[in-house]
Write a structure and sequence with these properties.
With 273 residues, chain A is α+β, with helices and mostly antiparallel strands. Helix content of chain A is 42%, strand content 20%. Chain A has 10 helices and 9 strands. With 238 residues, chain B is an all-beta fold. The chains are: A alpha+beta (273), B mainly beta (238).
Chain lengths: 273, 238
Amino acid sequence: MATERRPVLNFVLALGAALALAAVTAPAAAALEFSGEGQGIPQPPYPSTGAIAAARSFLEGRAGAKAFAVLDSSGRLSGLNLYAHFETASVIKVMFLTAYLQMLAAHHRSLTAGENALLYPMIHESNNEDASAVLAAVGEPAVERVAREAGMRDYVPGVGWWAYSQTSAADQVRFLAELPRLVPGRFYAYARGLMAGIEPSQSWGFPPVARPAWQVFFKTGALPEEGLFNEVARLERTPVSFTVAVLTDGDPSMAYGEQTIEGVAARLLAHAP
Amino acid sequence: MSPAEHNRTSRRRPIAISTAALLLLGLTPGVLAAGAPSISISAVAQEIPLGAGVTVAGNLTGSPQATQELQLEAAPYPFRAFAVVEHTESAAAGSFTFAPTRPQENTRLRVSLTAAPATASATLQVTVDPRVALESRSLGPGRVRLSLRIEHNPAARARPGIVYWYLAARGSRTFELAATSASGELGPGVTYASTIVDPPARHFSYRACLNPAWEASMGPAATHGSCPDRGFRLPDGN
């Protein structure tokens, strides 16, 4: 494609003059910077509307209460029962992780081995005691702030236990889509590593369907006595990325709940980008 | 398609220099003394692309001799010391013109007499811009290759660095960081980087930003800084 080969040095000069007005959104300074114009064919939104419809149809046929949301690669939200409230179970631990890493960044601190010994098992094996310790360290207001910063509208702190916090599928996909912005930059690779390296017994739903073609950053959650099985995931396959949340309640068994989420995954990912 | 040379004349800078613009510089302290020789100099262009020549001309006044030998001295970045790069002789009327010199980085120039009395002109700053070629090539749905080739001072050491690529739909003022890629040296004085991105729209704008080690030695000082690590919004009206 033809390009306009115009250096942005002039842009930089003009930018300097306008900096006082645009300090929040414009770069503080620019280095050697060059601009061009290009043409191309944008990647069609992924998953396709057909795939989302197939997933919705499948989910409607499953027992119990259920919801799912997809924030596709173009940022469009769709799904089923997008704003229905469900208990978070352990998917809330990603919010705890985010709040903790924000706290470290706010205090200009690095992650210590002791802190990693809390955060790693909280995500890797979904350890509840460590999650409670992390919540105690950051405080509920910090988690609520994460929810606000992510644009979540349905988050309600749990009464009695954090796992009973309320969320919606739409909230969860918004949160995961904002994760690169919410997690301080120097901790983002760490957070991604935790969410990509969850132990096999906790890796049901999307990972077995999506891998190895996709990078899957996810968290599962379960309250088996209620038949509640949730999963939230961020899937990346260059240049495509999207977020998805599947929330279920009243499942007859854990195997049933896992199969429900895997069924949604299979339909969403039926065709490669 | 082939990448085209980056065209310096397309820049709309407030101090844009055309080939018609001459910069006349001040005189030496000696000019104030009656009868003392003085030298004024000018250059056809104050800012040139790498490889272009800059012609320094001027006038010698107050010299007791009909003609006088002069030397052109250059102090390349960081401008610590001048060295002689050309010689010429003034005409009877005092005018002189040196053969074009081709600085490879930002350079200060001055003209002095080769013989006593010690007399030198004021300095003339020449800004040398790297030559830049950008290219975008559609590879199919969701894939556009962006590439950047920069010719810079071959004497400057260039280590691999990071190039930040920002995209915006055409007409949008909000640029998002779409990719980062490593730069490499194709040869002495030639930096190259490329990346593949998903275009935000069929027609889009892109920007490539980098902080090479030789950055301070080339181009206007106002361009030097750091690349935004996420994205940015252009100020309205820019």
